[in-house]
Amino acid sequence: MMNTEKNDRILAIFLRGMRGEKLTVSSLANEYGVSPKSISRDISGIRCFLAENREICGHAELVYSRSDKCYIMRFDDFLRDSELLAVIKVLIGSRAFSKTELLEITGKLRRFTSTRDKALLDSLIAKEKYHYTEVRHDCSEGVVEMLWKLGGDIRSRTEITITYYKMNRDRVTHTLHPVSLMFSEYYFYLIAYRASDTGHMPVYFRVDRIVSVVEHRTHFELDRSIDFDEGALRRKIQFMFPGGCRTIRFEFSGPSLQAVLDRLPTAVVLEKNGRTALVEAEVYGTGIMMYLLSQGSWVKVVSPQDFVEEYKAELRRMAEKYE
Q1: Nearest-CA neighbor of 14 among 28, 26, 35?
Q2: Is the pLDDT of residue 301 over 80?
Q3: Which DSSP letter does residue 237 get?
């Protein structure tokens, strides 16, 4: 009976350490009603176990912190409390997950903080979690599971057929060769080539609008020359609007030039004249017009000429709505 109580106590202390609690010999001795020597032996046993099973336990160590005067579980590759806060804030701000998925993910992350730090973390995210509003989802499996399924199809080069809701809510099917997953502006996107398209023009599908996926036995191959580079796309595209690649120039006179440069990773400032900067950027797709229009009178497009004409035509259409 005594050995059972001891084993249960050691397991409880081990799990508390894994959850990030700070462990002191005196407080544990008082809590479990045993001598400090017994707790010290328990901790020594846990440390030996972790040393002998480093691979299984994720290289965890129970170490003594002289500054805090307690034992703390340390992990080689896990996030610090400050990093966990930053990650959770980004997850909440993305609005990409259902509330159930968000609460489940953040709940798992907070397990790795200490009892004291859990309270601090909870106080910093409580209001955002309560008021969290997800983007509308059509995928029946949830975004997280759908992403994992599509990721497997991309890796195995499996041809798939998706059932999908278009922007106008028409329900359609597409047979695709999936090549990449990306996140942009609240949504995850599947990037794929249509199975029937020998020209290999990429098409984009919002993952939250995918109702179902049928995986075929057919596998596909891609030549290196047409294999998709999502890193290059991310540098040049805005709002995931497809289209050709071109170099544009515009004048910007707003208060935060840095915000523009951050938004357009390929942008460079060619010259400055007072508060006005001439900016050049290589962009992909038509979403750049939406972004520049959002800057109002701070922007004047200057080249190429076909883009200038497109921009002016859009401004005229906007003005006509107020005539």
Answers
A1: 28
A2: yes
A3: B
Longest dimension (CA), the chain: 88
Structural Rg of the chain based on CA atoms: 27
- The rounded distance, in Å, linking the Cα atoms of 308 and 100 is 46
Residue 215 has pLDDT above 60, yes or no: yes
Neighbour tally for 314: CB within 10 Å: 14
- DSSP state, 296? G
**pTM exceeding 0.90:** no
Taking CA atoms, 270 is separated from 14, 115, 293, 305, in Å, by: 60, 53, 21, 18
**What SS3 state is found at 58?**
coil
Q: Which of 66-70, 121-125, 214-218, 273-277 has the lowest mean pLDDT?
A: 66-70
Cα-Cα-Cα-Cα dihedral sign, residues 137, 143, 145, 151: positive
> What does each C-alpha distance from 43 to 27, 33, 38, 256 come to in angstroms?
13, 16, 9, 55
The count of other CB atoms within 10 Å of the CB of residue 1 is 5
DSSP code of 207? G
Question: Three-state SS for 82?
Answer: helix
